[in-house]
Amino acid sequence: MQKPGFFYSLITRLIDLVLGSVLLLLSTPVILLAAIAIRLESKGNPFFVQKRVGYRRKPFNIFKLRGMYVDSVERFPHLYDYSKHDNLDFYFHAKRDPRITKVGSFIRRTSIDELPNFLNVVLGQMSLVGPRPEVPEVEVLYGSYSEQYFSVKPGVTSLSKITGRDALTKVESIKMDIDYVNCRCLSLDLQILWRTAQGVLLRKQVYAERETPELTHTPSREETSVLMGVGADSD
Predict the structure, then answer these.
(1) Is the CB of residue 144 less than 8 Å from the CB of residue 88?
(2) Half-sphere exposure of 221 (CA within 13 A, CB side)
């Protein structure tokens, strides 16, 4: 399949800049209210800046609202030990995570914690649609998936996020987002944005249920294209 050309890159950057700025402006009151609620519940900066791996594996700082206790690393160091995984067949988020505060649970469930990502979009570090930016500790496990996954800008939302989100294992999410990389086009991006808006408004489940092994199937490119209503050879 032919990769999207200059026109696609120009249009997507224009959409990112204009729509990203509008969404950042509109979400500012919500961000500020959430920041106050976070600070009232637990001590520490309500905003969270974390190193992530982005386009062409270039590191950048992602902006989020803090959903965990500030000392979660010290209190639960075992939950940050990704070296125990030999592969990517694991769930990144659990339904009951002791690191997450009560306010944090709400803002994660409603995706409010990711609203500051729009600043990354405006700065050109992220796009509205693309594979989610990875933490360096997990990126080292990507192996052969790394080149394709990081060949585009990371996104605020993604194909895996609207299809299974945290009900998918890490490897399932990666494969699905690589499917997106291989068949991305403007119509697919717009559909993902629309599905994301619907998912946020309907507050769909975002956490993995460990007792549902049937969710381990990863759709092929053809299945993904049918799911999104876009032909596999679309450009």
Answers:
(1) no
(2) 12
User: Is pLDDT above 90 for 214?
Assistant: no
- Is the pLDDT reported for residue 233 higher than 50? no
pLDDT at residue 206, rounded to an integer:
47
Angle at 72 between CA 71 and CA 73, to 5 degrees: 90
pLDDT at 181: 95
Cβ-based burial of 105 (10 A; exposed 0-12, middle 13-18, buried ≥19): middle
Tokens (6 digits) for 158: 């993604």
Pairing of strands 155-157, 127-129: parallel
Beta partners for residue 48, in sequence order: 64
Give the mean pLDDT of the chain: 82
pTM for the predicted model, two decimal places:
0.80
Give the torsion sign (CA, 127, 129, 132, 136).
negative
Whole-number Å distance between alpha carbons of 204 and 232:
27
